[in-house]
Amino acid sequence: MVSLYKRLGGISLNDFGELLYAGKTDTNKNGIVFILLGILAIVGANFIYAKTMLMVIGGVLILVGLYLLLFKRSEKFSIYENTIVLTLKGQEFSIPKEQISHIEYEEIKVRRSPVVNYYPVLILNDQRRVLINRPFNSIINQDLKKVIESYL
Question: Where does 2-25+74-151 sit in CATH, by number?
Answer without folding.
Answer: 2.30.29
